[in-house]
Design goal:
By secondary structure, this protein is mostly helical. It is built from 24 helices and seven strands.
Length: about 575
């Protein structure tokens, strides 16, 4: 089996070995010619399905009714794992909603954007635009390239509510379970049937309870909801040598976020090398095309499309330690390449981040060329000056999860010839990933205090119910998603916006204020300039503007010539790996 299992890592994905009927060993074969393909097709179209089942077609069919029962049992386990992933991810998302931990940044932003799509409009978010001083009417397509979000618009015709996004994300994550199980079958195609089944089941379980998915679910909704299944389908179709389908999913992946083209480019490179070794011209050509097209798409989107849609140049440039702009950074790296290592390891939390991400799969992803797809995403984070990119409690790790798990399965398949080593590595990966899932997600589900708002947040829901439909509102970031469906809401920040209603806490710091003193000063300012206190409880205050003609000092709404501003990151962000 030693030569067979290498196909999951450095060689062709599957198909370059075949089983001798009635025997459990694999015999190597050369590139498939037309005659071989005709012979395979002549087996009644079951060739592709048989490969997924480990190549034991002849033996399984000889077992009569056992074959059907095994297949039914396998399907049942797959459904169970899919439902498990759906329920856990949905529960964490709804728990966060119930406990008022899903906030305006970012659930409220995506809710407003998808609602605009549902009304056949460009995706716009007053929460994002007003707080960051973007001009009126600015489309989020100028902020991030996420046209895939439009696919969710029909769901808002059924239920116009932010929880639609939470449930949709859980469903998209769960859709990856059967794909991961197919990936495991590809990787272990030449192993014994029992090994194939175990690999598929354990791979599906580790994916379904993957800590990056749990984190992302708990944090509301993000565009990674589409990136996860699109990446998995691209990888699986590549392993199945369905090159046209792989290219299709690669193209869709580019619509999930502007930097996904870099992942597609790395995938194309790996695909081309594997197809070349297998003697597949179509695969080699497809891989080469993707290796070129992926980075080109990202470059065009970042340098042309986003600015065309109104995105300010360099708005998200977070690599000041490398250079003031991409050109300056490239010159710096070429003249002093060691600066990359210096930036990547300081502060030390970046090293801890890499250790956590790779360590929770027992370093197995490093044994497969597929890991190359994760390099651009990891580089974006370790080279970044933005502390939000360093902890492992945000949604960024979910972009990596399909890649890392696929690479880990391929590495295990390569080690399969050394049975003891395979078992030890598999047990280590299962134990570590399960422990991480328990720490970062599963334990929250069994804690009653996490299913209800904290005392400082409870009055927000009561006060929000007093605000009439259709009103303009400046709301505490914590309660903003509860108002997006029925009011024109922005988050309350350091700048008064002149809304009809203002809902804010004064005893507990809320984003984006730097202190509770700032929040109290804001309330005092409004009370002195045309606002009346309507309701107050436990540090939560609801104000109504009863004298709209009274000017409020510093009041401003972004205009056509407004210059977007970047968020000032609080000092405690990025200070700890697991700081939530």
């Amino acid at each position: 089996m030693g030569s067979a299992v290498t196909h999951g890592v450095a060689g062709p994905p599957v198909g370059d070995t075949h089983r001798v009927p009635g025997r459990g060993t694999a015999a190597p074969s050369g590139p498939r010619d037309a005659r071989d393909r005709d012979r395979d097709r002549g087996r009644g179209g079951d060739w592709g399905r048989d490969r997924d089942r480990g190549g034991d077609w002849g033996r399984d069919r000889g077992r009569g009714g056992d074959w059907g029962r095994d297949r039914g049992s396998d399907r049942g386990r797959g459904i169970a794992l899919t439902v498990l992933c759906l329920l856990v991810c949905a529960a964490l998302g709804l728990q966060s909603w119930t406990a008022l931990r899903a906030t305006g940044f970012d659930l409220g932003i995506f809710d407003q954007a998808v609602r605009a799509y549902a009304h056949a409009e460009l995706p716009r978010s007053p929460i994002k635009n007003v707080h960051h001083e973007f001009p009126p009417g600015f489309s989020l397509l100028g902020d991030h390239f996420t046209p895939a979000l439009a696919l969710l618009a029909p769901l808002y015709w059924l239920w116009d509510d932010p929880r639609t996004l939470i449930l949709a994300q859980a469903a998209l994550f769960a859709a990856g379970v059967p794909v991961v199980r197919r990936i495991a079958r590809h990787a272990f195609a030449d192993a014994e049937p029992v090994v194939v089944r175990r690999a598929a089941d354990l791979g599906g379980l580790v994916y379904a309870l993957g800590w990056p998915l749990l984190n992302s679910s708990y944090n509301g909704f993000h565009e990674v909801a589409f990136a996860v299944p699109f990446t998995l389908l691209m990888l699986e179709r590549g392993l199945a040598r369905q090159y046209g389908a792989a290219a299709f999913w690669a193209a869709l992946l580019c619509t999930a976020k502007e930097d996904m083209g870099l992942v597609v480019g790395a995938f194309g490179l790996v695909l081309a090398v594997r197809a070349h070794r297998a003697g597949h011209r179509t695969g080699r050509a497809t891989g080469a095309a993707l290796a070129l097209a992926g980075p080109l798409v990202s470059a065009l989107v970042i340098t042309w499309f986003l600015p065309t849609m109104g995105g300010p140049e360099g708005y998200y440039w977070s690599y000041g330690r490398l250079g003031a702009d991409p050109g300056d950074a490239l010159t710096h790296v070429l003249t002093a390449p060691w600066v990359l290592l210096q930036v990547a390891v300081t502060p030390f939390v970046k090293v801890a981040m890499l250790a956590w991400i790779l360590g929770t799969l027992a370093l197995l992803p490093l044994g497969s060329p597929t890991f190359l797809l994760a390099v651009p995403l990891l580089a974006e984070r370790v080279l970044s000056d933005n502390p939000n990119h360093w902890p492992v409690i945000n949604h960024y790790d979910a972009f990596l999860w399909p890649i890392l798990l696929t690479a880990a399965l391929e590495t295990l398949a390569r080690l399969h010839g050394r049975r003891g080593a395979t078992r030890r590595w598999a047990v280590a990966a299962l134990a570590l990933s399960s422990a991480a899932a328990a720490v970062l997600g599963l334990n929250l589900l069994v804690r009653p205090d996490f299913w209800q708002p904290s005392p400082d947040k409870r009055p927000l829901a009561t006060a929000a119910a007093l605000i009439p439909d259709g009103a303009t509102v400046e709301a505490d970031n914590t309660i903003a998603p509860r108002l997006t469906a029925r009011t024109d809401v922005v988050i309350a920040d350091r700048t008064p916006r002149g809304a009809d209603w203002v809902l804010l806490r004064t005893e507990d710091r809320t984003f984006p204020f730097a202190s509770t003193d700032e929040q109290r000063q804001r309330i005092d300012l409004l009370l002195a300039h045309g606002y009346t206190e309507v309701w107050r409880q436990d540090g939560t205050v609801l104000l109504h503007r009863t004298a709209p003609t009274t000017p409020v000092p510093g009041m401003r709404r972004p205009g056509p010539d407004s210059t977007p501003i970047r968020e000032a990151v609080p000092e405690d962000v990025g200070a700890g790996l697991l700081l939530r």
